[in-house]
Write a structure and sequence with these properties.
The complex is a heterodimer. By secondary structure, chain A is mainly beta. In chain A, the strands form 2 sheets. In chain A, strands 2, 4, 5, 9, 10 and 11 form a 6-stranded mixed beta sheet that branches. Chain A has a 5-stranded antiparallel beta sheet with strand order 1-3-8-7-6, with no helix packed on it. In chain A, β9 and β10 form a beta hairpin. Chain A is globular. The N and C termini of chain A lie far apart (36 Å). The model of chain A has no long low-confidence stretch (mean pLDDT 94). Chain B is mostly beta strands. In chain B, the strands form 2 sheets. In chain B, strands 2, 4, 5, 6, 9, 10 and 11 form a 7-stranded mixed beta sheet that branches. A 4-stranded antiparallel beta sheet of chain B has the order 1-3-8-7, with no helix packed on it. Chain B is globular and about 40 Å long. The termini of chain B are far apart. The mean pLDDT of chain B is 92. Classes of the chains: A mainly beta, B mainly beta. Chains A and B meet through β4, β5, β9 and β10 of A and β4, β5, β9 and β10 of B.
């Protein structure tokens, strides 16, 4: 079993829909990162969380430390949100990554 | 744009050869991490350098080595290349060992 599990692996949505991507982890962490990766490889850091909730534009990230679970929400999704979303947890100075969730938003 | 650059963007090598990949971090970023991402997989941590010293290492053999220089650049060296080393190699820099990481665009290595 991977230390970081994401669900779903693939997600197709219609433009405007509310999207949730989930991340569960099994190790003690100091922080959790949500990252976005576009085709071609470039990775952008969206959020770094150690507790509670953060919001940036249409993106919201939450974390429940007790349940070892985090969610990334996208409100009013748009085709430009199509990308791979990766959850990564920080453990003693290194990041452990999930497999990623491939999101496609159709117009 | 994260301000982190990597070179080259693509590289083709044959089995047994050696390769050096380069990363240039933002000024003031004293920490650099290197990751390997195989096709369809999440990145895997190779190692981290903090103030020019290795600060942590993932499950990679010693033929993967690195250097970090005072001018915020760094290198990843891989000796005795194997077919399974074919992957996207990403570097990420940060202002401290636990801070937000800024990723470069990656180097795609193909080993034939």
């Amino acid at each position: 079993k991977n230390e970081v599990e994401q669900s779903p692996q693939n997600l197709t949505a219609q433009e405007g829909e509310f999207i949730t991507i989930n991340c569960s982890y099994s190790v003690g962490i100091s922080a959790l990162h949500w990252l976005q990766q576009h085709p071609g490889g470039g990775i952008v850091s969206l959020f770094m969380l150690s507790s509670g909730k953060k919001k940036h534009g249409r993106l919201i990230a939450t974390i429940n430390i007790q349940e070892k679970h985090s969610s990334l929400h996208i409100t009013a999704s748009h085709p430009r949100d199509s990308a791979v979303y990766i959850c990564a947890v920080r453990v003693t100075g290194k990041l452990i990554f999930g497999q990623g969730t491939t999101l496609q938003v159709k117009p | 744009e994260t301000g982190v650059t990597q070179s080259p963007t693509h590289l083709i090598k044959t089995r047994g050869q050696q390769v050096t990949l380069r990363c240039s971090s933002q000024s003031g970023h004293n920490t650099v991490s290197w990751y390997q991402q195989a096709l369809g997989q999440g990145p895997q941590f190779i190692f981290q350098y903090y103030r020019e010293e290795e600060n942590g290492r993932g499950n990679f053999p010693p033929r993967f080595s690195g250097l970090q220089f005072p001018n915020y650049s760094s290198e990843l060296n891989v000796n005795a290349l194997e077919l399974d080393d074919s992957a996207l190699y990403l570097c990420a820099s940060s202002t401290n060992r636990d801070g937000t990481q800024y990723f470069g665009p990656g180097t795609r290595l193909t080993v034939l």
